[in-house]
Design brief:
With 149 residues, the protein is α/β, with parallel strands linked by helices. The protein has a single domain, classed as Rossmann fold. The chain contains six helices and six strands; from the N terminus they run βαβαβαβαβαβα. It has helices spanning 22-33, 47-57, 73-83, 98-107, 118-129, 137-142, and strands spanning 13-18, 38-44, 61-65, 88-93, 111-114, 134-135. It has a six-stranded parallel β-sheet with strand order 2-1-3-4-5-6, sandwiched between helices. The radius of gyration is 14 Å and the shape is globular. It starts with 12 loop residues before the first strand and ends in a 7-residue tail after the last helix.
Length: 149
């Protein structure tokens, strides 16, 4: 896979994308490239591929598709959280169920958003980079605080 790397002179945060669908991955690349204050340091189509590059790239934030071939996104988030606790993660999913959000947060994710909501993805990136945990208002209403460790 061709490695995407973009640089912005005013960059303060680096982002890595893990998404197996070409169209969604390209949309996420465009979204990150248009987000002020961040730069893209890599992309991968699988968790295994991401794990080959992330140690050298050390992004500040990794956008992770929940449903990946091979190792799934939840396991990748857990592994990243355990190995590099300073790397923040945002789960991006086509699944709108509170069960997946709770599982990703319990694995160490710093947020959960739906793939189709570009505004929420941008907001989540900014808030997570500011040190917050991000959930959409709809998801906050669905989740029971007891579902999250």
């Amino acid at each position: 896979m061709r490695e995407h790397v973009t640089t912005n002179e005013k960059t303060s945060a680096t982002i890595y994308i893990v998404e197996d669908h070409d169209i969604v991955r390209n949309l996420l690349v465009q979204l990150v490239e248009r987000t002020p204050g961040v730069s893209l340091v890599g992309v991968a189509a699988s968790a295994e591929e991401a794990l080959e590059h992330i140690p050298a790239r050390r992004p500040r934030l990794v956008l992770v598709d929940v449903s990946l071939p091979g190792m799934d996104g939840i396991d990748l988030i857990r592994l990243l959280h355990d190995r590099w606790p300073d790397i923040r993660t945002l789960a991006i999913s086509g699944h709108d169920e509170a069960l997946y959000a709770a599982a990703t947060l319990n694995a160490g994710a710093h947020g959960y958003v739906m793939k189709g909501n570009v505004i929420q993805i941008t907001e989540a990136i900014q808030r997570i980079l500011e040190g917050e945990i991000y959930l959409s208002p709809q998801l906050r209403d669905l989740l029971n605080p007891d579902d999250i460790d």
